[in-house]
Amino acid sequence: MKVTGINGKKEMQKKLRVGWFTFTCCEDSTIVMTEVMNEHWEEWKRLIDFRHARVLRTDNTLDELDVAFVEGAISSDRQAERLKEIRDKAKRVVAVGACAVIGMPSSQRNLFDESTKRAIQFLVDRFGQSEKVRSVKELVQVDAELPGCPMSEQKFLEVLEGYLKEFNIVH
Amino acid sequence: MHKIDFDLSLEEVTKIEGAATLSVKVREGVVEECKFGIAEYKRFYTQAMVGKPASALPQHLARICGTCSNAHIMASLDAVEHALGIVPSAQTMVLRALTMDGLMIRDHALHLYLFSLPDLLGKDSILALDENDPEEHQLLHDAFDVKAAGNHLSQLVAGRSVHAPMPVVGGFLKIPDSAGIEKSRRELEQIRPAVLRLIGVYGKSPFTLISKTNYVALTANPCSFLQGDLCASNVACIREEKFMEHLSHVVVPYSQASAYAFQGELYRVGALARLNLNKDALKYRTKADTAPYLARFPSDNAYDNNVAQAIEILHCIDEALELLSSHSFHTETPQKVSPHAGEGIGVIEAPRGTLYHKVVLDEKGVVTHGDIVVPTGQNQLAIEWDIKTLIEQWIKEGKELENKKALEHEIEQLIRAYDPCMSCAAHFLEVTWDEA
């Protein structure tokens, strides 16, 4: 992987501005990402600016992003607003894992029978959950999807590599 | 007494598994309110498990939590096999022990290196460690080497670190190949010095918060994360199927998770509890190499959970090395499941503490009811209590409470020392909430 640099001089390495966000899910793809990191951390340290990744840092900033990876389904209006804010700030949005891509299994309550729905309704209300749990693309435009429970490591690396090229971080 | 009025609200605790919130209210120097809430939205797994065939249940319940998924699989297999009267073979138990070793190594390493180590070094992130500083350079490389060795052991034995596909009801779908075993043994031996460095780093940490509570853990000798009786620091040990009789559910209205008391008292589970109750059962090689640090247990310092986790990584390396060297694995078809009605309980020690699964099956082997109690739910009240104690100490010592950033940072460090897992804690509906 060739690093971008003008005249090959010691210049500030341009980095891909990445956000990693998690909504309603088991965070399995986050764990897979931290395991993929075992073999790629040196390259990522050089090429990626994790602007917002709660799993990796405390001092997070939601500002302009090249790529937002979004894991999990959307359970509430509050989460939906946050997702729209991320969409507004990110040039590319990637839905990560089954819950983000198709809603399931986090949206399993959508499929409960009426009596089970009635039994859980007080909790749905208490914590301000929306009537239905939704996938990411039901709410915002998605540029790429990483399906699977968890996501495939290989597919994730392919998508990341594609964005590193698209944003001229590597050639 | 300081006449201090103070409000603090943490919307999002970082570098933990999942989402948590905290709100604190101090009036005239007294902590009037300290609410530690689990902010993950409920996903209603105890409802969704109803109607599933028993054989599909472990994989379904793995989805409660990514990082603890293999622990949920082990607990669910235990519960289902008890319900169906299946006794796993000796080889299956060895492979399950190895699955737990891989899980503990990679999960504790995730917590100790990626979540908590930046606190110790005054950094925001593991990736912010300075490669030009010899100690930080070493720890940075150690972090990913140790995680990778745990990840590879999990892949070798269970097929994957997350939602492992190979362990099934009655056995394993695949046995480890000899080339993989050799590679794993080499890697595990190679990371031992790194883990000894890690134990040293946490062992010398100055962070202290003394909090006297009861401790509960599944306890056996030799040490096992899968078998034994439930022991507590102040009562006689009980059999795993009696565990729920000693727990009381505590409603925490601002948290999406259920909290628990053990025999009516605050208690803690996890690595600190395990070492406080059963350190003598660790591997001989582990004990020999960590004697100065092991001497501090039993400990009431909440931050010693970090030291305990680091020592457990070494124990799991030593156990895995021993098991991989002393067993030749042979192909074994998983035992046939003949569906029938039954009730089963499975209790194991997950990385963060005691994990309880209960399942009730009808005559077709289909789930009609289930219960799950996760470690973070059990630790929830102790975490909240310790945060309150920490703030009271700040007030007593006359520290600048107005310096919110510093206090928030210290509170986050304390929460991280518990290594809470919010996905697990918010997995289900506790029916008694309705009555509350």
Automatic annotation (TrEMBL), chain A:
Record's keyword terms, sorted: Oxidoreductase
Residues that span the membrane, as ranges: none
NADH:ubiquinone oxidoreductase-like 20kDa subunit domain mapped to chain residues: 31-161
SUPFAM superfamilies assigned to the protein according to its UniProt record, in alphabetical order: HydA/Nqo6-like
Superkingdom of the organism of origin: Bacteria
Classification via Gene3D superfamilies: NADH:ubiquinone oxidoreductase-like, 20kDa subunit
A GO molecular-function annotation: iron-sulfur cluster binding
PANTHER family attached to this UniProt entry: COENZYME F420-REDUCING HYDROGENASE, GAMMA SUBUNIT, HYDROGENASE SMALL SUBUNIT
Protein name (Swiss-Prot/TrEMBL): NADH:ubiquinone oxidoreductase-like 20kDa subunit domain-containing protein
TrEMBL record, chain B:
Cofactor (UniProt): Fe cation; Ni(2+)
Domain of life according to the entry: Bacteria
Similarity comment: Belongs to the [NiFe]/[NiFeSe] hydrogenase large subunit family.
InterPro entries per the UniProt record, alphabetical: Ni-dep_hyd_lsu (IPR001501), Ni-dep_hyd_lsu_Ni_BS (IPR018194), NiFe-Hase_large (IPR029014)
Keyword Oxidoreductase: yes
Gene Ontology molecular function, alphabetical: ferredoxin hydrogenase activity; nickel cation binding
Residues noted as binding Fe cation in the record, renumbered to the chain: 68, 424
The keyword Membrane is assigned to this record: no
Keywords (A to Z) from UniProt: Iron, Magnesium, Metal-binding, Nickel, Oxidoreductase
Binding site for Mg(2+): 372, 427
Membrane-spanning ranges: none
PANTHER family assigned: COENZYME F420 HYDROGENASE, SUBUNIT ALPHA, F420-NON-REDUCING HYDROGENASE VHU SUBUNIT A
Organism per entry: Candidatus Uhrbacteria bacterium RIFCSPLOWO2_02_FULL_49_11
Binding-site residues, Ni(2+): 65, 68, 421
Annotated protein name in UniProt: Hydrogenase/sulfur reductase subunit alpha
Pfam families (UniProt xref): NiFeSe_Hases
